[in-house]
Amino acid sequence: MSTAPGREDPEAMRAVDRSKRVRVTAPVSSAAPAPRSPSLSREVAEQSDVGGVVLRSLMRSQLRLALVVAGAFLAAIGSVWAVSELAAQLPWLPGLPLVWLLIGGLPYPAAVVCGIAYYRAATRNEQRYAELLEDRP
Known about the structure:
Keywords: Membrane, Transmembrane, Transmembrane helix. With 137 residues, the protein is mostly helical.
């Protein structure tokens, strides 16, 4: 039976494949397997020195982040106070001074923006910490 050029007979291919098969095995060794270093998650769980260092590192980064965000929020509130002192004499709407709008309206969006920024950065810190704790082969 003749096949098209470029196509081979499936039965002939099976016969060829069986003759080319070779079984490969790993050499038998009497050496003990290399000891695995303990993972960071085990170090943290056992409260060892290494685990304590990693945990303190996370706590320091979260504290630093909280202080930076709180400082930014206080600076924003301070700037609202400074602008309100400068603009105390300027009326903006009839019967509603500009100072009231600044003091009553700006701190809330600033608090929301600071909260969102803190949440995102804290999540990123915790993800980095979790990546450190993943068991590595």
